[in-house]
Amino acid sequence: MVFNILTATTVILATILWVEIVRDSYHVLSHYWPPLYRLHIWHHRVFRPDLSPVSEEIYRKAHWYNDLPEALVMLTLSLLPGVILTVQNSPYSWVAWSGSIYTLTFLFGAIARGAGVPYADELTDLTHRQGDFTSLPAPWFVNRPYHWRHHFDNQKAYYCGTLTFVDKIMGTALSLKGKTIAVTGASGSLGLSLLKHLHLNGAKVIALTSQERILNIDIDDEEIPVKTLTWQVGKEAQLKDELDKIDILIINHGLNVHQGRSEAAIAQSYEVNTFSGWRLMELFFNTVQTNEDKVRKEVWVNTSEAEVNPAFSPLYELSKRTFGDLVTLRRLDAPCVVRKLILGPFKSNLNPIGVMSADWVAKQIVKGAKQDNRNIIVTINPMTFIAFPFKEFLQSLYFKIFTRSNQ
């Protein structure tokens, strides 16, 4: 009995997932195949940045030209699971039509909105409602902030309608094109590699470094100068005006005193690895003011694999873990998306015996971000992929239970 219920439930969920994949694939195709794009463009003509419709006429036409054809394609292909299981005389063929029933809600919703039925938009067009965003772009389910970016950030990304599954696979769950991204620790091996791969993905990069020189990145054997800002640990407030103009801040600077344990080594490790990054993060949070800021601005924090594994440098581990704990605490109610970069040993000035190349690590970080991974793990140690999510979940839960938000 239990097995039959589980199997039937699996079939239902699988058929719904199937029609969602059809829906998102149709959407992607609509942006690349001109005959479909001529219909789909009506959807992009409808809304202003505050998600108010340009006109009632265009709003209704958009549903006849875009939403209705999309729903009909979904309905047609939703029949496949039912037909296949019926032909195979499966005892679960009757639940294989669940995707078709699910699709009818989209079909009737599109017809109702196109016909101007009162309140149809409020009941069936949830991702296009006006008002302040009360949440951040969700990682697994499409909400208003997530879908807003498809209209006003990059129309060649954020294609998904309900689940973000297809965007994650395609690497379109976050667009870096045109975004202004600043990287601290930019003169280091990873910093330079991040600047390079972010630039290759269409970002406008800014190097934040303590060195008094213009940094360059190597693109196809050509040295390209990068906008470089000089700053010092302890003087983070001097960057406030620049942070206002930045979409994504990557906190990447750090210090490794290796076997040091003196009073000066302790103070220096915590000042550089913990409190400097925390101050920058809080300054950046204060720049998030509008709906657009909430969906475009992000902080990426390199807290290191030292959060869960030994780095054979106790002060590096202690200071990085403290920073990681603060990030976990603050992102419970952060005003923008905060990503953690959990990196294994890569070759750099901090770790000359690292086994991974900084260039490869940077490439994987960018790939993970475009898949909208909130915790981006790049390491050769398989235990980190188990230990870190477990630690992060429990610690986040602990902080949520025993702390209180002031918002």
From TrEMBL:
Xref: SUPFAM superfamilies: NAD(P)-binding Rossmann-fold domains (SSF51735)
Keywords, alphabetical: Membrane, Transmembrane, Transmembrane helix
Pfam families: adh_short (PF00106)
Transmembrane helix is among the record's keywords: yes
Recorded superkingdom: Bacteria
Gene3D superfamilies found in the cross-reference section: NAD(P)-binding Rossmann-like Domain
Keyword Membrane tagged: yes
Spans traversing the lipid bilayer: 68-88, 94-112
Database matches in NCBIfam families: PRK07424.1, PRK12367.1
Protein name in UniProt: Fatty acid hydroxylase
UniProt organism field: Aphanothece sacrum FPU1
